[in-house]
Each structure stands twice: as structure tokens, then as C-alpha cells.
Amino acid sequence: MNHTDRGWMYRRLQNGYMNDEFINGVEEFMVFALSHVECLSAGKVRCPCNHKKCQNKVFLDDNIVKAHLSRYGFVPNYYNWHLHGEEYIRPNFPNTNPDVPSSSRSQNRSWESENIHVDHIFLSHDQEYLLANQNLGHEFSTEYQEEGPSQYVDPNIEPVETPNNYVKGLYDLIKSAEKEIWDGNPHGHSLLSVLARLLKMKHEHNMSERNFDDMCQLMSELCPANNHMPPSFYWTKKLIKDLGLPVEKIDVCSNNCMIYWGTDSDLTECKICEHPRYKPSRRRGSQTPNKQTPYKIMYYFPITPRLQRLYASTATASHMRWHHDHHSDPETMTHPSDSLAWRHFDETHPWFAAEIRNVRLGLSTDGFQPFGQTGHQYSSWPVILTPYNLPPWMCMKDEVMFLSVIAPGPSNPKDKLDVFLQPLIAELQQLWYDGVATYDIHSQTNFTLRASLLWTISDFPAYAMLSGWSTAGKQACPHCMSDSEAFTLVHSGKTSWFDNHRKFLPIDHQLRRKKNMFIRGRRVLYPAPPTKTGDELLSELDNYGFLPAYDVDSESRNREICQLAKCGWRRRSILWELPYWRTNLIRHNLDVMHIEKNVFDNVFNTIMNILGRTKDNAKSRADLVEMRIRPELHPNVSTGRHPKASYSLERSAREVLCRWLKDVRFSDGYASNMSRCVDMNKLRMFGMKSHDCHVFMQRLIPVAFKELLPREVWEALTELSLFFADLTARNLKQSDIMRLHEQIPVILCKLEKIFPPSFFDCMEHLCVHLPYEARIAGPVQFRWMYPVERFLRRLKSTVRNKARVEGSICNAYLVSEASIFCEHYFGDSIQTRQ
Q1: Is 246 strand, coil or helix?
Q2: Are the C-beta atoms of 418 and 808 separated by less than 8 Å?
Q3: In 724-734, which positions are buried (b, 16+ CB within 10 angstroms) versus exposed (e)?
Q4: With contact defined as beta carbons under 8 Å apart, do 303 and 425 qualify?
Q5: Is residue 315 a part of any domain in this protein?
Q6: N or C: which end of the chain has fewer CB within 10 A?
Q7: Domain assignment of residue 80, given as a range
Q8: In 3-state terms, what secondary structure has residue 446?
Q9: Measuring CA to CA, which residue among 700, 745, 706 is closest to residue 722?
């Protein structure tokens, strides 16, 4: 085309509508631009629109470029398409663009006052995702739907693309908040704002439904007669049902063998144990059909719509790209996005990392007893997902931790947990391969959202349930695996990891050659075993022939393999079905919270010589005799009495310590009242929570034992205290992690010279692997169980109907999601969660 014929580029509008000549010209331009491959970047076209962020500076999809051109027009004086493959020719044409004045570019705002009708051919054709059973046409918003779908537009963001149907429905619901609670209300309170505040109070204060009903009735009586106040919680749920998110109820075999889902959804009995699916009918001789009641039900909360809402809300959409936009010191890690695991994932899957809005997830699970310790034994197991795209001050908060699965009780699922994870793994696979069309309110563009699972977070017993590796016995360490040198003590009968840490020392360290200081006659001259890669672990599982827990023949087959191979594997985890799982540098995290608590309990109970809890007892002294080490601690042959150990406090010293702990005070919000845990009669501590142990371990040990213990014992414990304090810092430097990696085996060797072999169980040994995981995965506060435990505590408090534990949790969680929805979407106009 001759350059003189391109006046159409600046004749975009005609009588307020798109000019046909401009539409045809844009189509011709796109064909020309796409035909010059050398000018494309990853299949994307340089955008020549006049938007201040584009102007031939960024590459976008062809459909988005069309939408930009229809909205903003071409950049001024771009008659010669030299940036799209055309030979550069200096133009001689004057500026004839009626939409763009010849003044400065900042004054180009004429489009704001134009009544533009954008032709649909310039919009993105991404497939629109609709939620299952998402009814947007209830009576609460009917009057607004008759006017056509509304579009929520942030006044600070210039619109680029129109939202898909799902997001339009959400914005229609926002518009319905304009409906007053009664006609002529002088205070301006809308019905939805009042219901949102009531839901907030119910969620925050764990209000019963009866209390909520009474409050609704009282408010209805106080309002004028023409008010729209719902009379009960039942009607409130019907009015705000579209604020919630979907949940699926899936029948489960009574023995946890299988779930009636997918191709098995029509079965009436278990295909493994042949147990019937439904309870027998109690109505005998009745002619009317009775509703069939399953023996057990699990609840599944799809993660896809919950991730979509993060991008549909102005409160969270802009923060979902923080992991990419923030800048930090290359030697300092403040977020998982700074870790080696994150960077390795990006390098392994560059197509996934190219879209910065793709979501990285962490999975965590733990069981809890809803009836307390004295009630009926019942174990419920929620599975929680949390996105790591968010900044540190938002990540791992309750509002962005999504309940995904509730594995029903009353029994612990143990190795059958994979059975309940099948819907979640299928959805994660779909989010990896296909993605889902999502609207980003921050950039006001549609994109294909994908998600991946980075790692899992759990305590040590749940580690075995998620990974398939047994965390009991001599091969309990998931890092050392079969290279573990744990042994069973003769008299105590316990597994000990004593003298298992010299191999982690530098190869020329003098402690490696000591023969009589640890296990008699043993020198350690070989290096520590290397950490196995995902490919090596998967190959090992395939060679053994382990099957996933949901397979028909898995139970007998896996038991047979375990008996023959005598390995630490118990089954093939369902997480290996994720196509990227084997490429992750770290798949399962050791929980620093529980490790720190168990180490503290062992140290404190042994020093305080607590009866029944100390690791220094008659059997441990007999083990010292059997191993022929520490002769100064051997029992007296004539009297049978045990000599006092240097690490054990006298009664007078214990009284001094307990009185000091009784008077110690902390700043508000730093720690709980630790004086409540002091028992002056028995001179011990009781009822200490994990955070109490955390504070004592890192802050009080160097002070409390300085004048009470010998110097070599106090120094070793102080070094252990400082190790945990540095490890759990908010910002981790690579140099500090390498220092901790070198120090921890020395610290453990010092402790091995002080405490008996029965002191060193698996928890003390796992400390040697914590710096490695911190170097790979980043700061600890994103990978420990404190946020998960707080989330589970809130779920536990919502159990009202103890005959339907999972149903109570499900209903309360959906109310919580509706409350958070109002907080995110209405901001300061509706005061919800604080």
C-alpha cells in the first residue's frame, strides 16, 4: 500500500462510531505485521497504539493490539510501518489526525468524551469461564440485570478489554448494593452493606444461627414497615448466595478405599472392599422412594474460581504480580520468589514463567480433634492451598488461604489421604495444561491463568502421608533415606541418631577422627550422602513398582513390596502425577515449628529432670554402659545410684529458674503469659504452646541457664538457640545460610558429647537439613505450620453440629468467603474484617 493512502489511520471515528475504512485498514495492518516474523517477539506484535504504555514499545497478542488500536488509535505520524517490517522512508505528510492535536502528548485525552462503540472483532476471543451452578439471576439483582450487564471500571485505570461473563456477573452484584434497606433511608445504608456487616460479625465472633436470627428479627422490627431486611440466616444465605464460591459434595467409601467421583460416580458399592455406598433405608413398606444417604461424604472446594477472584478484585489483583515486580538484593531472600527453587522452576518451565500472573501454590494439611481431648475420638483433615504471588505482608494470611478438601473422619486417613486428593490433582493438571480464561482488573485485560504447586507444608507424620516415605524407624529421615545410620538402643528400645552428624562436618574436621568420644572405635572419613533429585526418586519408585493409594490393587501390592525391599517407601504419592513435580528442587518441607518445639521439649525436660519426660533415665544410663562411653555417668555398681550429670539441675537451681519464669514479662503481642505455665510445686513447665517454646528457645535459653549450667553445656545450648533465631529470620542472606550449614553439625556434635544417646531422636537429626532447605526454598515463615495451625483453629471453632463436623466447617467457611468478598470488593464503603 502507498504511504499516501494511509490517511485512514487517523480517521478512526465517524459520527461517534468506528469508521469502516479504519476497521479494514487495521485488519490489513495486522496481516502485514504478522507476515514479518523477524519483527515478532514470541509470536506477539509490537503495539503501535497511542496509549502511553505502548507506542511501539511493548509486544502484545494480536487481538489485544486490535483492541488497543480501536480504543486509542495509532501513534502520531506512523505512516511508515518501519517497526513492523517495512523499509523506513521519511514521511512528508502533515499531521492530519483529528483525534490527536499537535500539542503535547499528555493532552491527548479526547477519547474520554467520545461515545465510542467498539466493534466486537477487536476484542479478545479467550474462552469465558462460567462457574458451575453459579446463578446470577436471583431476586437480589434482577432489577439491575434488566438494564444490561454493568462494567466495574476503576477511575484510576484506563479500560483495555471488557470482562468475561463471570466477572461481569460479579460486578452486576456490586451494583445491586445500591438497593436501600428501605425506601427513603436517610443514612444511605444498602441492603447488601447491612448483610455484609452482619456476616462479618457472625464470622468474627463465631455467632450461632439462632443468635443471627434474633438479630435479624430485631433489626426488622426497628426499621420502617417497608424494609427489605431478611428475617433469618436462611434467607440471608439465599440473598447472598452468589457472593459465595462453589463446593462439591463427593460420596466416599466408609473404609476410605475410594471416592465416587469421575468414572466411578455411578457405582453403588466400593470396587475395592465391596462395602455399600448408601445406608439401608429405614422406611420399610413405603411406596414413595426414599432419598439415599451415603455413609460418608467429603467436601471439595474448587480452587479455580477462587484464584480468579484474586484477579477480579482491585484489593488483590495488583499484588498478584508483586513476586515479579519487587527488587531485592540478590544475596538476600525475603520471599519464596527469591529462592533457588522458584528460579529453577522458571528456568525449567520458561513458558510458564513468561506470564507473570500465573500462580504458584503451596499445599498444607494437618488433622485436628473437633471435640477436644476428652471427647469422642474424631480426626478431620482439611487440605489448604495458599498462593505465593502475594507480597510478604499478605502471603500466608487467612484471607488468602483457601480450604480445598475436607477429608472426613472419624478415623485418620493415613496413607489413604491420596484418595481424597484426586479432584484437586485433576484440577491442578487442568490449570497446568489448559489454564482458564481470567480477567485482571488491575490491567483490565483477559488472560489465560495457569497454576503450579511448588511444595507441601506439614508436620512430620503428615509428611509421610503426602510424600509416601515412612517417617518412622531407622530410615525416617527423608533426606538421608537409606543412607541413615540410626540404630536401636539395647535397653531403651528406641531409635537413636547418635553420632549421625560427623559425616556433615568438613572432610578435614578433627572430630571426624575421634574414636572414643562418640561411638567407641568409630571414625567417620566419608562425606554426607547427596540429596536425590526428583528423577532419581521417581525412578526408584518405578523400579520397586509401588502403586498410588487409590489403585484397586495398591494395598496388597505395596505391602508385598515393603516386606521384600525393606525400604522407606510405602506407596507412590499422587503428587507425582503432576507433570512438573519431579522437576521441583524441593517437594516437601520439614516443619521448623514442630522440630523446634520437640528439640526444646527434649532439652528443657532433660535439664529440669522432669519425671517421665527426661531423656536421662535408668535405661539410658544402662545404654551408656552397653556402649562403653561416658564412664562418669555409669551407675555405681555397689549402690546402684546414678551419678549426677552436668546438664541436670539441682532442686535449688530449678526453684530459682521457676521463680524467675514466674516474674518474667514480655511486650504486648510478643508472647503469651508464660507465668501461667509454671508449676512451683513440681518445679516444671506445663501447657506450653508451640509459640511459647519458640520464644523460650530463641530468647530465654541464653539468659535462663547462664548462671545455672556449666560453661560448655551453656555454650552448646546457646549456639543451638542462636541457630534457630538466625534460621527463622525474616530476611535470609546466602552468607548466613552457609554459615548455619557449617555450624549446625558442629553444634550437634557438641551436644552429642554432653547428652546421652537416647536424647537424639529424629527431631534433633532433622536440624542438620534445615539450612539446606532454607537455601533452596527461602525464608522459613512461608513454609512452617504456624499460619496453618491458626487457620485450623478457626475451622475448629466453627463446628456447631457435632454430628455433621465437615458440614459445619463447610457452611462456616462459605460464610467467611462471602465476608471476605465484601471486604475486597466494597473497600471502605462497607466496614467488614479489620
Answers
A1: coil
A2: no
A3: bebbbeeebee
A4: no
A5: no
A6: C
A7: 3-122
A8: strand
A9: 700
Q: Which residue's C-alpha cell is 562436618?
A: 505
E-strand ranges in 621-704 read: 678-679, 684-685
Report whether pLDDT(111) > 60: no
Strands 678-679 and 13-14: unpaired
The pairs formed by 293-296 with CB atoms below 8 angstroms and a separation of 24 or more are 294/251, 294/252, 294/260, 295/251, 295/252, 295/253, 295/254, 296/251, 296/252, 296/253, 296/254, 296/256, 296/408
* Long-range contacts formed by 320-325: CB under 8 A, 24+ apart: 320/357, 320/359, 320/387, 320/389, 320/390, 320/442, 321/356, 321/357, 321/389, 321/442, 322/389, 322/390, 322/391, 323/356, 323/360, 323/388, 323/389, 323/390, 324/356
The answer to the question of residue 761 being in a domain is: yes
Q: How far apart are CA 582 and CA 567, in angstroms?
A: 20
For 732-743, write each residue's pLDDT tens digit: 999 999 999 999
The answer to whether the Cα torsion of 422, 424, 429, 435 is positive or negative is: positive
Measured in whole angstroms, the distance separating CA 371 from the mean position of its chain's CA atoms is: 26
| Residue of 520 and 429 predicted with greater confidence | 429
**Count of domains forming the chain:** 2
Are 306 and 814 within 8 A, CB to CB? no
Across the chain, mean pLDDT equals: 83
Three cell numbers, residue 152: 466495574
Contact 383, 421 (CB under 8 A): yes
Question: Distance of CA 101 to CAs 8, 68, 70, 254, Å?
Answer: 16, 19, 18, 74
Torsion of CA 804, 805, 807, 809, to 10 degrees: 160
Rounded Cα distance between 92 and 463, Å, is 72
Alpha helices in 553-627, H assignment, sequence order: 554-565, 592-607, 618-627
The span from the CA of 3 to the CA of 29, in Å, is 12
Q: List residues bridging with 182 in a β-sheet.
A: 227
The DSSP H or E segment spanning 456 is strand 451-457
- Record the cell numbers describing residue 146, joined without a space: 434488566
Q: Provide mean pLDDT across the span 190-209.
A: 79
DSSP alpha helix (H) spans, 85-190: 142-145, 165-175
Total residue count of the chain as it appears in this document? 834
Mean pLDDT for the stretch of residues 778-807: 90
b or e along 50-64 (b: 16 or more beta carbons within 10 Å of the residue's beta carbon)?
A: bbeebbbebbbbbbb
Q: Is the pLDDT of residue 694 over 90?
A: yes
Backbone angles phi, psi at 801, to 5 degrees: -95, 100
pLDDT digits (tens, 9 = 90+) for 80-93: 888 888 876 643 43
Closest CA to 456 of 419, 425, 434: 425
How do beta strands 359-365 and 451-457 pair? Answer: parallel
Strand order in the sheet with 359-365: 248-252, 296-300, 402-407, 381-387, 359-365, 451-457, 588-589
SS3 call for 186: coil
For the chain, give the longest Cα–Cα distance. 115
| Helices 711-727, 770-777: inter-axial angle, 10-degree rounding | 20
Residue 282 CA to residue 278 CA, distance in Å, equals 12
56 torsion bin: left (phi>0), alpha (psi -120 to 50), beta (else) = left
> What whole-number distance in Å separates Cα of residue 450 and Cα of residue 64?
19
- Cell 527453587, residue? 341
To which H or E segment does residue 735 belong?
Answer: helix 734-752
Separation CA 307–CA 389 (nearest Å):
11
What is the distance between the alpha carbons of residues 784 and 464, in angstroms, rounded to a whole number?
16
Question: Are residues 750 and 719 in contact, defined by beta-carbon separation less than 8 angstroms?
Answer: yes
**What ranges make up the beta strands (E) of 623-695?**
678-679, 684-685
CA distance linking residue 769 with residue 376, whole number of Å = 38
Final residue in a domain of this structure, among 86, 106, 122 = 122
Domain for residue 25, yes or no?
Answer: yes
What tens digit of pLDDT does each residue of 326-345 get?
Answer: 888 888 999 999 999 999 99
Which pLDDT belongs to residue 133?
29
Domain closes at, from 122, 140, 164: 122
Across 267-281, 447-461, 467-481, 758-772, least confident range = 267-281
